[in-house]
Design brief:
Bound molecules: cobalamin
Order of helices and strands: EEHEEEHEHEHEHEHEH
Structural class: alpha/beta
Number of helices: 7
Number of strands: 10
Organism: Micromonospora vulcania
Distance between the termini: 39 Å
Radius of gyration: 23 Å
InterPro entries: Cobalamin-bd (IPR006158), Cobalamin-bd_sf (IPR036724), KamE_N (IPR028991), KamE_N_sf (IPR036843)
Shape: elongated
Protein name: OAM dimerization domain-containing protein
Strand content: 15-25%
Mean pLDDT: 96
Strand order of the largest sheet: 7-6-8-9-10
Low-confidence stretches: none
Length: 250
C-alpha cells in the first residue's frame, strides 16, 4: 500500500482532520441546545467540536453547523465504488451503433413512479434540452423516447413498456423519505419480473440523487445512476448493455 493511500480531512492546514457537519435537533435554541449539539458531535468522533452557526427553526427546532477535528483516517485502497465499465460515446456514435447493429429504433420508456413528482431529473436525461450542455435522449435520432412524467403507477409503467416494446425502462426516484425510493424500485422490478419472462424483459434502470449505486442486485435492476448523471452516459450505457455487450456474450 502506498503512503498516499491514507488521507485525513483538511480544514486550515493539510491533514489537520477538521470537518464541518450540519444537523437539526428538536430543541428550542438556547445555551443548552448548543451544548447538546457539541455532545452529539463528540459522540460522532468530532473532538474538539465548535458550534459555528445555530439558527432557530420555529419554536421547537434548531439548525446547527459544527466545526471540529476527527481522528479518523481514510484508506483510499479500501474505497468501493461502481466505476464506469463502458465506453463514453458521442450522440453520433450511439446513433451509428443502434442503426447498424440493432437495425431499428431503440425504445426507451421513462417515468417518476409512486407519489414522486420530481421530474426535473428524468427530464434532464430524456428531454431534448438535456443538462450540463448535453442534449437529452430525445435528441438521439435512433432512440424512440416516451416520457410518462410524474406519479406513474407500476402497473401503468409495465403496460406502457409492453405497448412501446421498450428495450429499456428508466425510472427516477428523488424522494427518499422512509426509503420510498427503495420500496418503489423493488416493487417495480418485481412487477416486471412477474409480467415478462427473462429475455423479454426490458433493461431496468433507476436514477436519483440518493441512490447507492452498488445496490443493483438488492433492488433487482440492471443499473443505478446517481447525482450528476448526464444523458450521454445513459445513452452510452444503453448501447453497451443492449447491443455491444449482448452481442459479445451471445
Ligand atoms: C425542484 C424541487 C421540487 C419541485 C419539483 C418540480 C419538478 N417538476 O420536478 C416541487 C416544488 C414540486 C417539489 C415538491 C416536493 N419536494 Co422537492 N425538491 C426540489 C429540489 C429543490 C430540486 C430537485 C431537482 O430538481 N434537482 C435537479 C435535478 C436535475 O437533479 P436530480 O433529480 O438529482 O437528477 C439528476 C440525477 O440524480 C440523475 N437522475 C435522476 N433521476 C434519474 C433517472 C434516471 C433513469 C437516470 C439515469 C438518472 C437520473 O440524473 C439527473 C441529472 O443529473 C430538491 C432539493 C435539491 N436542492 O435537490 C427538493 C427535494 C428533492 N424535495 C423534497 C421534498 C421533501 C418535497 C416535498 C415532499 C415537499 C412537501 N412537503 O410538499 C414535495 C413532494 C412532491 C412529490 N409528490 O414528489 C426533499 C426530499 C427529501 C427526501 N430525502 O426525500 C428535497 C431534497 C428538499 C429537502 N432538502 O428537503 N420539490
Amino acid at each position: 500500500m502506498s503512503e498516499k493511500a491514507i488521507v485525513r480531512p483538511y480544514g486550515d492546514t493539510t491533514g489537520d482532520g477538521m470537518v464541518q457537519v450540519s444537523f437539526t435537533l428538536p430543541v428550542s435554541h438556547d445555551k443548552r441546545a448548543e451544548g447538546a449539539a457539541v455532545q452529539l458531535a463528540n459522540r460522532m468522533g468530532i473532538d474538539p467540536a465548535m458550534v459555528v452557526h445555530a439558527k432557530p427553526m420555529g419554536d421547537e427546532f434548531t439548525f446547527f453547523v459544527v466545526y471540529g477535528r476527527v481522528n479518523h483516517l481514510v484508506d483510499l485502497n479500501a474505497v468501493q465504488v461502481v466505476e464506469r465499465d463502458f465506453a463514453l460515446l458521442s450522440a453520433r456514435e450511439v446513433n451509428t451503433v443502434v442503426k447498424q447493429r440493432l437495425r431499428r429504433k431503440l425504445s426507451v420508456v421513462g417515468a417518476c413512479i409512486g407519489t414522486d413528482a420530481h421530474t426535473v431529473g428524468i427530464d434532464a436525461i430524456l428531454n431534448v434540452k438535456g443538462i450540463a450542455g448535453e442534449k437529452g435522449l430525445e435528441y438521439y435520432r435512433e432512440l424512440k423516447v416516451v416520457n410518462l412524467g410524474a406519479q406513474v403507477s407500476v402497473p401503468e409503467l409495465v403496460e406502457a413498456a409492453r405497448v412501446e416494446k421498450a428495450d429499456a425502462v428508466l425510472v427516477s426516484q428523488v424522494v427518499t423519505q422512509r426509503d420510498a425510493h427503495l420500496h418503489n424500485t423493488r416493487e417495480m422490478s418485481a412487477a416486471f419480473r412477474e409480467a415478462m419472462p427473462a429475455g423479454r424483459r426490458p433493461l431496468l434502470i433507476v436514477g436519483g440523487p440518493r441512490f447507492d449505486e452498488t445496490m443493483t442486485d438488492e433492488l433487482g435492476v440492471d443499473r443505478i445512476f446517481g447525482r450528476g448523471t448526464t444523458p450521454g452516459e445513459v445513452a452510452s450505457y444503453l448501447v453497451h448493455a443492449l447491443i455491444t455487450q449482448r452481442k459479445a456474450t451471445a
